[in-house]
Write a structure and sequence with these properties.
By secondary structure, the protein is an alpha/beta fold. Helix content is 44%, strand content 13%. It contains 8 helices and 7 strands. Strands 4-3-5-6-7 form a 5-stranded mixed beta sheet. A two-stranded antiparallel ribbon has the order 1-2. 24% of the residues are buried.
């Protein structure tokens, strides 16, 4: 049984697009759309402008995989970062979570996901080769595998550890505070900081 449209096609299209965002189902998307439409000047117009600017200016950093308005990104250009430590994360959201927690002052590398046989995601679909190139270039003494404590995350961590073997680099992973099956973006800053401080060899 199909649901009856409650508004014109333009509004329905807005609701459908909002519903595709993480954490927003159809009902939450309707509430968000209604809020935007009822406050067009205060919310919808500034949001539209911000999204247009983001569409034009936001790029993926060719060095680490972060998203920013410059390439290399702000983090890669920061001279205060420790160039000898490289934190490997699955997605940009994980990078942002660690940055919010101010857990580590290092460089980052975004994989773009995890290995997953079920989803058909192999090593060539991730930026693992680029990671190996960065480590092979020298100057990095430690690689921190800050991947999610899921089956796919651990599989990816093991694969990366094997690829980095023989490159004279210490490989560690997050320890205390990250539950099995947990995802970094949903953890609080204190937990993330403790996990970074208590990392162990992998």
């Amino acid at each position: 049984m199909s649901t009856r449209a409650v508004a014109g096609p333009e509004i329905e299209r807005l609701i459908q697009l909002l519903a595709k965002l993480p954490g927003l189902g159809p009902r939450s998307a309707r509430r968000a759309a209604l809020q935007l439409l009822q406050k067009k000047d205060a919310l919808l117009a500034p949001l539209t402008q911000a999204m247009e600017v983001a569409l034009e200016r936001v790029v993926v950093c060719s060095r680490c995989g972060n998203v920013d308005t410059s390439d290399p990104c702000t983090i890669c250009c920061d001279p205060r970062r420790d160039d000898t430590v490289l934190v490997v994360v699955e997605d940009v959201s994980d990078l942002w979570a660690l940055e919010r927690a101010k857990a580590v002052n290092a460089r980052f590398h975004v994989l773009g996901g995890t290995l997953s046989a079920l989803d058909g995601i192999g090593p060539d679909d991730l930026s693992i080769d680029r990671l190996v190139e960065r480590v092979s270039a020298g100057g990095i003494r430690e690689v921190i595998l800050a991947v999610n404590a899921t089956v796919d995350g651990l599989t990816t961590a093991h694969f990366i550890t094997d690829r980095l073997a023989g490159l004279n680099v210490s490989v560690s992973r997050l320890a205390h505070g990250v539950p099995v099956g947990g995802e970094l973006d949903y953890l609080d800053e204190g937990t993330l900081s403790a996990a970074i401080r208590s990392r162990t060899p992998f």
